[in-house]
Design goal:
Layout lengths: L2 E3 L2 H12 L7 E5 L6 H11 L14 E4 L5 E5 L13 H7 L1 E5 L5 H5 L4 E8 L5 E8 L1
Parallel strand pairs: 2-5, 2-6, 4-5
Antiparallel strand pairs: 1-7, 3-4, 6-7
Helix pairs in contact: 1-2
Length: about 140
């Protein structure tokens, strides 16, 4: 069983707390159904990293970059079949900051080669309740 949150604010706080363990080179992989709260979770990470910009889903831009304690790159693969390696250099982003990837399972073999990484699975229970499973993979 994971962490159960009962509001968007609780979900933000879980992610914000996690941000204290995030540094350059941290890869955060988020999975969950559409509307489960993946972008909301990234907003909490950003808040914890001191990002002042409005965090939005990069569904159409593929990657958004935010400035905080460390840079945060937010990647969304929802519209893609896999990671766009020819257009986006994951290793370069990880050298510069942390990277949060939504819909990473669209190219799971690619991402499983990266260690350490944090895998976050968000399950939609109902309109307000989410179950969040966080795994550290070394």
């Amino acid at each position: 069983m994971g962490i159960v949150t009962r509001s968007e604010e609780e979900t933000l706080k879980v992610a914000e707390k996690l941000s204290g363990r995030i540094d350059r080179g941290t890869l955060i992989l988020l999975s969950g159904d559409l509307g489960a709260g993946k972008t909301r979770f990234v907003k909490g990470i950003a808040r914890g990293l001191g990002v002042k910009e409005v965090v939005t889903s990069p569904t159409f831009t593929i990657v958004n970059r935010y400035s905080g304690r460390i840079p945060l790159f937010h990647v969304d693969l929802y519209r893609l079949e896999g990671f766009p390696g020819e257009d986006v250099d994951l290793d370069e982003m990880l050298e510069e900051g942390a990277v949060a990837v939504e819909w990473w399972e669209r190219d799971s073999e690619f991402f499983k080669s990266y260690k350490p990484r944090i895998e976050v699975d968000i399950r939609f229970i109902d309109e307000n309740i989410r179950e969040i499973e966080i795994r550290w993979v070394e």
